[in-house]
Amino acid sequence: MEDNKITDAIDTIRANWPPENRTMLIEALTLAIGALEKQMHKKPIMKDWSPAFCPSCGKELSELIGDGYYKHWTNRNICDCGQKLNWG
Fold first, then answer.
1. Mean per-residue pLDDT over the chain, rounded
2. Looking at the chain, which runs of residues are DSSP E strands?
3. Which helix (H) or strand (E) element contains residue 35?
4. Taking the CB of residue 6, how many other CB atoms lie within 10 A of it?
5. Using one digit for the tens of pLDDT, what is the confidence trace for 38-76?
6. pLDDT at 40
7. Can you spell out the DSSP letters for 5-24?
8. What residues have CB less than 8 Å from 88, skipping those under 6 apart?
9. Which of 17, 44, 63, 76 lies at a CB distance of 3.0 to 4.6 Å from 52, suitable for a disulfide?
């Protein structure tokens, strides 16, 4: 699914949010929004001389190869938490 369609779906859910007394529905919609947000590509968090991290769960996405250098796992398109990654 394209990122703009996911954003539209999230906006539609939020625009039609149920009353506060519908706790089970609110929990289900909150879970659905979280799952949809992970389907949107996000760039890993990267800083010089540091490993890359998942923007959602913080999992390290690199390995230390010596002398302070890290090899980023750029062939990995999805983190273990389900977050889609954009290394570009």
1. 93
2. 62-66, 69-72
3. helix 23-38
4. 19
5. 999 999 999 888 999 999 999 999 999 988 789 999 999
6. 94
7. HHHHHHHHHHHTPPPTT-HH
8. 43
9. 44
